[in-house]
Amino acid sequence: MSSLIIMGLTISANSKTGKSINVSRKSCRPTALCRKRCYGEKITLEDIARMEAAGIDVRCLRPNAGPITWDKSQETYERNFNVLQAAYKEGWLDELAAEVSAYWIRHQPEEVLRGNGLGDLWPPLCDFYARLAMHGVPVFLFSRKAEMISRLRETCNLLEVEYDRRPWVIGSVDPSTEKEDLSKLQTETLRMNGQVTLAATWYDPTDRLLWHEPLENWQVHEAGVRVIFGYHTNFHHTRVPQALQKNECPATAGLKTTCRECRKCFGRHA
Ligand code: SF4
Questions:
Q1: Residue 134 half-sphere exposure, CB side, CA atoms within 13 Å?
Q2: Which residues contact 3 (CB under 8 A, 6 or more apart)?
Q3: What is the DSSP letter of 248?
Q4: What are phi and psi of 158, to 5 degrees?
Q5: 30, 36, 41, 58, 236 from 54: Cα distances, Å
Q6: 111 and 18 in contact (C-beta within 8 Å)?
């Protein structure tokens, strides 16, 4: 599977998620855990050793050097950010969305586009996804920003996107997410999808970090967490407590599967 470039915007492709839109991490509003363990940031054992020697708190840090962290990938995500920003400011976002949609409908109408493989919503990306949905491209995406999910819903309303064509939005949380942010994500995913829809990153209990409110205390299932991304281990697969395994992302847990087969995250596009 190969990536493609339309009007300067790269649509990435990988064997797990299929096609996805990734943008620079400057679009993100990271939590405390994100700052330590972003899967998009390259970190080597040497980096960790250097930080430890400099007296920096390295608990929770893990080596991370997957393709998403490579310089070439990061340049692509930076360019995507700039293309979307320019299209929004210069008034060609409609054209960009129409071109991407035309390609999609022609070549892969059955596929679901993964939004925010890296990065998060900001106004140009909200408006871009709403336009893709208007043209009939099925999108599912993750976001930590409740106010941007709200904007996306309002833009879909303005563009008169039918309810079952709207992007399926998953609120992204982790053990360091503030209670207030959790609550707003519950509200906005409910308004967007018709049900509270969250995904959580699990953490390694041996890290002994004093997060504001350990995720266990949120009563994960009652909070509306549908999918859990476990913590990385030395065995090339992630791990979560036994009680939550049915919610774990099977791809990161080591199963040879793809989002298209799994569809746990897809919601109305399933
Ligand atoms: S849970 Fe399934 S659909 Fe969601 S990211 Fe993992 S493999 Fe993809």
A1: 20
A2: 10, 11, 12, 13, 19
A3: B
A4: -60, -40
A5: 23, 16, 20, 10, 29
A6: yes
Residue nearest to atom 4 of ligand 1 (CA): 265
Token pair recorded at residue 174: 């982790």
Measured from the Cα of 262, ligand 1's closest atom is 2
Could you tell me the distance, in angstroms and rounded to a whole number, from the CA of residue 239 to the centre of ligand 1? 15
Q: 50 CA to middle of ligand 1, Å?
A: 34
Pairwise CA distance, residues 266 & 145, whole Å: 19
| Cross-strand partners of 4 | 11
| Total-model pTM | 0.90
| Six-digit token string for 178 | 């503030």
Centroid of ligand 1 to alpha carbon of 235 (angstroms): 19
For ligand 1, the distance from its centroid to the CA atom of residue 249, given in whole angstroms, is 5
Q: What is the pLDDT along the chain (270 residues), one digit of tens a residue?
A: 688 999 999 999 887 778 999 999 999 999 888 887 787 888 888 988 998 899 887 776 777 787 888 889 999 999 999 999 999 999 999 999 999 999 999 998 888 999 999 999 999 999 999 999 999 999 999 999 999 999 999 999 999 999 999 999 999 998 778 889 999 999 999 999 999 999 988 776 665 554 444 555 556 667 788 898 877 665 667 777 777 788 888 888 888 888 888 888 888 876
* Residues with a CB atom less than 6 Å from ligand 1: 227, 249-251, 257, 259, 262-265
- Residue 35 C-alpha from the chain's centroid: 15
Q: How far apart are CA 215 and CA 195, in angstroms?
A: 20
